Amino acid sequence: MKMIQNLNDMLEKITPVDKSRTGEIQIQLDILTKPQGSLGRLEELAMKYCLITGKNKPAVKNKIIFTMAGDHGVVEEGVSAFPKEVTAQMVYNFLRGGAGVNVLAKHAGVRVIVVDMGVDHDFEASEGLQILKIGHGTKNMAIGPAMTRDEAERAVLAGIELVHKYKDGIDILGTGDMGIGNTTPSAAIVSVITDTDPELVTGRGTGIDDESLKNKINVIKKAININRPDKSDPLDVLAKVGGYEIAGIAGVVLGAAMNKIPVVIDGYISTAGALIACEMSVHVNDYIIAAHKSVEIGHRKMLDHMGLVPLLDLNMRLGEGTGAALGISLVEAGVSILGNMATFSDAGVDEKSGM
Fold first, then answer.
1. What SS3 state is found at 128?
2. For residue 321, pLDDT beyond 50
3. What is the dihedral of CA 215, 217, 222, 227, to 10 degrees?
4. Host domain of residue 161
5. Contact between residue 291 and residue 324 where contact means Cβ atoms under 8 Å apart
6. Residue 274 near residue 287 (C-beta atoms within 8 A)
7. Quick check: is 354 in a domain?
8. Residues noted as catalytic
């Protein structure tokens, strides 16, 4: 894929959501056959969708989840319950349609596109797979930077370009991830950006025991101490303690904002990517919808930092884009209400008495 302009040029193209239409959209919602505000956050989602897209009565039809995959050198430190080979194995599972994200995406009518950002395996081109590989896994952040600054920027730009490639006709995007060990860089990112002790934002990931959790926390502290990421420079944080798929997710979120496409983020890893994107541009969080609250303890910290309230709390922690599929379904429901529900006038229903 030919790389587009440099990252700073791209960031300048992100503009705030135009909220001047809030009043007219609210009127559309209030004249529907229901008590005002009675459909709660579904009405909020309809409002947000219209403001982002600039449409009055939109329809959500073309839905895509980008599941970004990459390996992590920090797995060498024993931070995961699974070996890194599982990353590539799961990519093949996605392509066969056998993973959790495939099932939930099919349920929601969403297309899944798997993106190799940095898996330590060479895939052959196939339908449903985009190969944007920056490297064969990051380096071990416990002994030095995970990536060079150039690699991090290229990974973010690849995510932006991915959205540009698919943007025509897309009504909504979702993000997902696959990468054994990727809760470790995610915890490091939230720790640095929010200035929070790693112990307070580091969870068990794929299900590690108490001893392994202590090791994971120590590894994150070591990585931060060795690399000294600059919290005021999100690209520096990403390069030193991030991951290729996290960078790609940041790019997808930025690309969605540039193209005024609502983007539904999944759980912990997707939110780490979104957090980087929001630190790069102050306007980005207006374009983001948080699908759910992850079991991972640092997730709430990230959402609060971005001012996002998750739609669901289902004790999920799988990733892949599973939560995004459910979130997209809820956005579609809200938009459908706005577009298809009868008004009081159309239905001949009294607007006041009995309502």
1. coil
2. yes
3. 140
4. 63-332
5. yes
6. no
7. no
8. 320
